[in-house]
Amino acid sequence: MADRIMIALDNVSKIYGSGQHAITALKDVNLHVPQGDIHGVIGLSGAGKSTLIRCVNLLERPTTGHVSVDDQELTALDRATLNRARHGIGMIFQHFNLLTSRTVFDNVALPLELMRMDKNTIRERVQPLLDLTGLADKADSYPAELSGGQKQRVAIARALASRPKVLLCDEATSALDPQTTSSILGLLEDINRRLGLTILLITHEMEVVKSICHRVSLISDGELVEEAEVGDFFTSPRTHLARRFINDFLEIEPPQSLLDHLQNDPTPGSHPVLRLAYSGDEISTPLISRLARACDIDISILEAKVESIRHRTLGLMIAELVGPPEKTREALAYLEDHDLTVEVLGHVRRHD
Amino acid sequence: MSDAMIELILSSTLDTLYMVGISGLISALAGIPLGVLLYVTRPRQFLALPILNHLLGVITNIGRSIPFIILMVAIIPFTRMIVGSSIGLNAAVVPLTIAAIPFVARLVEGALNEISPGLIEAAQSMGATPWQIIMKVLLPEARGGIITGLTITVVTLVSYSAMAGAVGGGGLGDLGIRYGYNRFEPTIMLITVAILVVMVQGFQSLGDYLVRRSDHK
Ligand SMILES: Nc1ncnc2c1ncn2[C@@H]1O[C@H](COP(=O)(O)OP(=O)(O)O)[C@@H](O)[C@H]1O
Ligand SMILES: [Mg+2]
């Protein structure tokens, strides 16, 4: 059971338009999300995130490839069967998409009306959802009377009404302020735990990935370029783009005064400047001072930051190794031996 | 003013209300579905039927571009076929209705345009059928805009009905022309105009009230 695949995209490509104006929004995407996982897809604006998530419930039909949800191949279904399958897939959106003409209660009831349930059953289903999402006192309010966070809660309750096994979130917190974002993310995590719901979310914010995702895929120009467990993604990113996301998120960049003097190749009298990422146990050992002693060099720490990500600790540091070339080479080897991610940013000459 | 005159004014008022009421009702019943069809069959909409959409668009535009006075005369054979006569109240209702249907349709289409496409998408993600999207999303969400459109239509019908009445239909327009203009009785003319003003005000206020009641934006 543990590894049953809930969402499967196989060789999915999507091309908008045709001929000269064709835009390839997804290129041969393969994505498998096991039951109960919270899987994030992160990427820059225009990378194809929305297209990808809309391909899961066929709001957008892939040009080629197969989509399966809960072992049912959606790309092979006729209209009516697809509509029935969609009852098993909830979706929430960046701009909530609530019906302004309906109260909170009636918005949550909508998917059940679409399934032609009777009034009593609907009432029995909606009430607990309003409780779960903290909206019990808002049942008779209209969306216009609610804050953004409350609107997204209504949308979540609505998405859960048909008791789906999968929840799709298209930038669900991008229109919310940071406090509201974390409360909505908390709610999603709670739902994932309590209901065992599989969640696929797309976002351009690392904060979202960091707070609730188990696994993450990185999308760039319509291609999934990296996929990893979230702790691994933060500690040992494999692509340049992933590193950029992480650095922007952790706001760790060498100081400008240093960047100005950074050169690509070592010259006599220059020292390497490193970006070190370390995670897990390394952090608790006094690695830096041991390194200094073992290799007999000086280490000048320019920037450092420690983050806790999914019960793991991630340390990031920008440091200059000061010593003769053979000693700094030895130090680099030492660091790599200790499972640190080391990136040489360049070399600087000390001018003091 | 004689009792007969008062009675004439009263019955003319009822005649106008009759013409506006019947043509308003039928044009709403036909114009709303036509407006919905114009919207949902657009390219890239959920019932995209580009050829039908284009055809309906052309027909609607033709209907809207013919001046009412010409339409009224042009369709006399059709009117005769429907109500058996080309003069009288019912004969006036036919061209009024024909003129109002495309008018209503375009106003309804405009009201639907105001709905965020995200709502349709959300409904589709819940497995809504096209019919359910129309009945549960489009029409309720556009209710305010549709009522506004119908109010504009009714007010327009009041003035068109005066035109229709003048060529043998009856109603306040007919009264105004016959007594106010032909026999030069300025009092009658003034009363006629006053009643029309009050009528238009009344319809507009009723429309505004209904819009306010259905608007939760
Ligand atoms: N309906 C559409 N028609 C044409 N091009 C589209 C459509 N939707 C998205 N695109 C294009 O596909 C690319 C990916 O868009 P999207 O999936 O919305 O990216 P993201 O959500 O990551 O910002 C963009 O270049 C966008 O312009
Ligand atoms: Mg997007």
Please provide a written account of the structure.
By secondary structure, chain A is an alpha/beta fold. Chain A has helices spanning 49-56, 79-86, 104-114, 119-132, 148-160, 178-195, 206-212, 230-235, 240-250, 256-259, 287-295, 325-337; strands at 5-16, 23-34, 38-43, 64-69, 72-73, 89-93, 166-170, 198-203, 215-220, 223-229, 270-279, 298-309, 312-322, 341-349. Chain A has a six-stranded mixed beta sheet, sandwiched between helices. In chain A, strands 2-1-4-5 form a four-stranded antiparallel beta sheet, with helices on one face. In chain A, strands 12-13-11-14 form a four-stranded antiparallel beta sheet. By secondary structure, chain B is mainly alpha-helical. Chain B has one domain (3-216): MetI-like fold. Helix content of chain B is 84%, strand content 0%. Chain B contains ten helices and no strands. In chain B, helix 1 (3-40) runs parallel beside helix 5 (89-113). At the A-B interface, helix 2, strand 6 and helix 3 of A face helix 6 and helix 7 of B. The structure holds adenosine-5'-diphosphate (ADP) and magnesium ion.
